[in-house]
Design brief:
Residues 1-29 form the 4Fe-4S ferredoxin-type domain. By secondary structure, the chain is of the alpha+beta class. Helices cover 24% and strands 19% of the residues. The protein has helices at residues 15-19, 44-53, and strands spanning 3-5, 24-26, 32-34, 59-61. The strands form 2 sheets. It has a two-stranded antiparallel ribbon with strand order 1-4. The protein has a two-stranded antiparallel sheet with strand order 2-3. A hairpin with a 5-residue loop joins strand 2 (24-26) and strand 3 (32-34). The protein is globular.
């Protein structure tokens, strides 16, 4: 699975980082980014939860 954060939609709520800090981080400006676009299999469930919980729907699965 691959994941991507749309930097035009992200507003820095940090839900993704709270739910899956191994996959997401925040930039110096406070916006989310995927640490690595390739998500390890054992983190796919948490990543899907982050996608569903993003208030801005800024996270996409590639």
């Amino acid at each position: 699975m691959k994941v991507w954060v749309d930097d035009q939609r992200c507003r820095g709520h940090g839900m993704c980082l709270t739910l899956c800090p191994e996959v997401f981080s925040l930039t110096d400006d406070g916006y989310a980014v995927a640490v690595d676009s390739e998500v390890p299999a054992d983190l796919e469930s948490a990543t899907h939860e982050a996608i569903q919980c993003c208030p801005e729907q800024a996270i996409s699965e590639k």
